[in-house]
Specification:
The structure is a single chain. The chain is an alpha/beta fold. The chain has three domains: 74 residues, Winged helix-like DNA-binding domain superfamily/Winged helix DNA-binding domain (Arc Repressor Mutant, subunit A); 221 residues, 3-Layer(aba) Sandwich (Aspartate Aminotransferase, domain 2); 109 residues, Aspartate Aminotransferase, domain 1. It is built from 16 helices and 14 strands. A seven-stranded mixed β-sheet has the order 4-12-11-10-9-5-6, sandwiched between helices. Strands 1-3-2 form a three-stranded antiparallel β-sheet. The protein is elongated. The relative contact order is 0.11.
Length: 496
Amino acid sequence: MKKHTATLTNLRLDSNQAMPLHYQLYDGIRSAILNGQLAAHTRLPASRTLAQELGISRNTVMDAYAQLLSEGYIEGKIGSGTYVTHPLPDTVLQLGSTTGIAHTAPQRSPSQRGKLLASTPVSISRDTGYPRPFQPGLPAFDTFPFDIWARLMARYWRHPPSELLSYGEPNGYLPLREAIAEYLIVARGVRCTEEQIIIVAGSQQGLDLAARVLLDPGDKVWIEDPGYIGARGALQSAGADLVPVPLDQEGLNITEAIKRCPNARLAYITPSHQYPLGVTMSLSRRLALLEWAHHVGAWILEDDYDSEYRYTGRPLPALQGLDSQNRTVYLGTLSKTLFPSLRLGYMVVPVDLVNAFTAAKALLDRHAPSVEQAVLAAFITEGHFARHIRRTRILYAERQAVLLEAAARELGGFLEIGPAQAGMHLIGYLPEGMDDQAVSRAVAEFGVNAPALSSYALMPQPRGGLLLGYTAFTQSDIIRAVYRLARAVHTYPALL
């Protein structure tokens, strides 16, 4: 039986187009195949014949055929000719387009871990990009020494060393690890060497890394309640079984934690300045926590996220420095002291865990950006980091005072706000029985980002409140935002 040869004289080629003729021909034939005009097993004209019909060179046709052949749309049969392939390489794109038969896509879903990740929140804040008062956890961008940072960046990019352009060490750039180790020993009382430092992409990656290395699905974990939602998410995504533990004026209630789950695998804490309540864990509680971890073989994950900002006396030493049994993984971040988009943080891990954490870090993203690490190392060793901390510590104390004064004047009787000796936010407590999440939504309509305290908790809280971050905003920003918050209260009298 004689095979039917397709007619392609209806293809329109234009030599004035920027697209080469061979690609126009390839695209025209491919489209005809995909939309069903050229059915499977249809024979295409010989290259010489098609060239004559379209008035183009044979090489143009041969180039188009070669491309279609390489992509699997056509096939050559010795002694017979060139034919449309069956099945096509991207038939899936054409399901139902030529037969008139309705096709139902199979139901697909992510893995159980994928579902868990998709349903786990990372942050309470509604804002991205330019922040609105009183978004917590942001440093003062307006006082950062960008001129110095730019000069250091230019130094490394002008003549970058080859080692900064190749793959780096998974645990981080050695001069940066040395600088951080020296800083932590002096400023935070941490016991470490540079070998124990792991450079991570911000504290969130550090939390995820710790959960991957230290936990198996189903392991019990103590968490502060209320507590940092990013930590909760990292632990949940690793399949941990969270055990919320209440706090009091001495921090995590160790007695209650042991009562609820005596054999937890890990305890996540923010002992220097609890997030979000702001309390400091007492020495007796710290020692009790270390004794429990040693007794049951548990790990402690210490998140020291903003300890640099203490306005009365020296910053309290880290819990890690008290740990003689090496059960503590220490976590710090540069997001609160420099700027969040830098995405650099650090961990101090026990010596016997260094290899495991380094390997896990390599699997996640190989290593943190090398040039930024080099710039940060120079920023620290040349003294710019320490000077920036001193300046911002004074500035933040001033901004806190402005917030307290404005709130007392405009919001007295509605928000109960007291001074804090440390940190980057205050909590404005609401009258008892008031829904803090409803208040948070109401004030957002007036341009105020004040997250609800209850959003950070798993268990019901005795009293609602609003988190009021003040460090990223000028004094005039703070005063205007307090006015807007007061206006929201008067606009919604049901809030009172």
